[in-house]
Amino acid sequence: MHVVSFDQILDEKNYGGKAANLSIMFRNKFPVPAGFALSKACFDQRNNANFQLEIQRDIELALNRLNATHVMVRSSAIGEDDSDHSFAGQLSSFICEKKLETILTHIAKCWDSYNQEHVRNYSEQANKKLGGMGVVIQELIDPEFAGVIFTRSHIEAHSMLVEYVRGHGEQLVSGQVNPMRFHYHLKEKTIAGDTQISFQEAIHLALQLEDFYGFPLDIEWAYRENKFYLVQARPITTSPRHTRVYWSNTNVNENYPDALSPMLYSIARQAYYHY
């Protein structure tokens, strides 16, 4: 099968880590928006007209089962969410109407992102080669807030790190805006800083999920109408650095004029270490 819903087992080698983890969380009753995934065979045979026609019929049936007017079409490359390199923000995702032709257009755009120059450059720098691409189609949560939870902060020991923005989380991942940020101290069970909403449910879910997986996680979430939804979970790839590092705004803005995303932060940190 090449078009499979989240309530079925999606293995990483055929559907990618993002799809596999969404399936695991969905089947274990975590609050994950419903969806389905395309196998890497759909990508490998994207020029096979007969194969694609069969896949289109399966996609249309799967779309009819989704209770949403809009969906996310998301990359799920094989090796994208590994424990050593996450490729965060490198491959494309899109918001679009739940119409078959529109979905097919954005699936093709998702596939095209696999061969973008910056993805090749990242792959060479990380010495990590992707092994094809699955694609996730998922009900869209139009969030009031969205962000990430690192269940183990790379800045402060014995803490979670939460970063978030108003609206869609793509603004955070792409570095379009500076996120709001706070730490949750695991020993004292306290939040260090002011927050726009209550995060107790999110922290509880993050602790549950980390316990379920058995290792620290980078969790993407969306918040709407007093409910948190989990839209991705992957191993944390940033090494802890609990000694504080201070950069002047002058140097940071000179070298990195855009807002610092988590991915750009990891690059900048290494650059300034060797500066």
Q: How do the strands and helices of this protein lay out in sequence?
A:
Elements lengths: L2 E3 L6 H4 L1 H11 L7 E4 L1 H5 L4 H16 L5 E8 L15 E5 L2 H13 L4 H10 L6 E7 L5 E6 L8 E8 L3 H4 L6 E6 L4 E3 L7 H14 L3 E8 L2 E9 L13 H7 L6 H12 L2
What does this structure look like?
It is built from ten helices and eleven strands. It is of the alpha+beta class and 275 residues long. The strands form two sheets. It has a six-stranded antiparallel beta sheet. A five-stranded antiparallel beta sheet has the order 1-2-5-3-4. A hairpin with an 8-residue loop joins strand 6 (145-150) and strand 7 (159-166). The model has no long low-confidence stretch (mean pLDDT 87).
Strand content: 15-25%
Low-confidence stretches: none
How many extended strands?
Answer: 11
Q: What's the main sheet like?
A: 6 strands, antiparallel
The side-by-side strand order for the widest beta sheet comes to 9-8-7-6-10-11
A few lines on this structure:
This protein has 10 helices and 11 strands. The protein is an alpha+beta fold.
